[in-house]
Every structure is written in structure tokens, then in C-alpha cells.
Specification:
The protein has 130 residues and is mostly helical. It contains 6 helices and no strands. It is globular. The two termini are 21 Å apart.
């Protein structure tokens, strides 16, 4: 991934051009942002399902775990750093499509964090997973 646009990140996930390392780092970033709000469900890779669909399903299960624990889902959106105005518009719809869009935004935003950390980090810390 050369550019840091949502469109390029989305295309990389859809075209399966992201590396296993990048996928793992993105998974760790999502877990890191959710871990204080709930017990994060395990991410179980399934090679017969596209990676993006696996992430979307996993993010949905994280949201369910957050709600079951009694936390507000907006806390997760804040930690992920999603634009508040966009979230308000998507949450107005309350449809399966708007929920999917929210889950995709979470994935892409977390992937952006990983990309920035890897791209701009000094060489000694590149590809580090926190």
C-alpha cells in the first residue's frame, strides 16, 4: 500500500493484497482499542472466507461483547478515532448496510494506524506489534 487513503486500504483488503504481517498488526490494533471495554473474542482465521469478511464479523462480535458488558459502543468508536459526524449519520439509518459500513470504517481506520506506525516509525521500531 503506497498511499494512505481509505480507498487504497479498502482496495488492498478486497483485493487480498495485504500481507499476513499487516493483517496481524491490524488485528492487534483492534484488540488493543477494544480490550478495556470487553473481553475481546478470539479472531479465528478461516481461509475459505475473504479476510475482509472475517474482520467485519469479528468487529461485529466485539461490538456485541462491549454491549453485553454494559459499555457504550461510542467509547469504542472514540478509541478507534472515527469521525463523530460520520458516525452520527450512519447510526441514524439503523440498517444492516449502515452497520456493515461502520464495521468497515473501524477496520480501515485501524489499518491506517498500523500503516502510519510502520511507514513513519524509525527503522528500529518498524513492523512492531504492540
Amino acid at each position: 500500500m503506497q498511499e494512505l487513503t481509505i480507498r487504497n486500504i479498502a482496495a488492498a483488503f478486497h483485493e487480498k493484497s495485504v500481507t499476513r504481517d499487516f493483517i496481524e498488526q491490524t488485528r492487534h490494533q483492534i484488540r488493543k482499542d477494544a480490550q478495556n471495554l470487553c473481553e475481546v473474542p478470539e479472531f479465528e482465521p478461516n481461509h475459505s472466507i475473504p479476510v475482509i469478511e472475517q474482520f467485519i464479523g469479528w468487529i461485529a462480535s466485539i461490538e456485541e461483547a462491549i454491549l453485553k458488558k454494559g459499555n457504550h459502543i461510542d467509547q469504542f468508536y472514540y478509541l478507534v478515532d472515527l469521525p463523530e459526524s460520520v458516525m452520527k449519520e450512519l447510526k441514524k439509518e439503523q440498517s444492516n448496510e449502515s452497520n456493515r459500513q461502520i464495521h468497515e470504517l473501524i477496520l480501515y481506520r485501524e489499518a491506517q494506524k498500523v500503516f502510519i506506525r510502520n511507514h513513519y516509525a524509525p527503522d528500529k521500531t518498524k513492523n512492531r506489534v504492540e
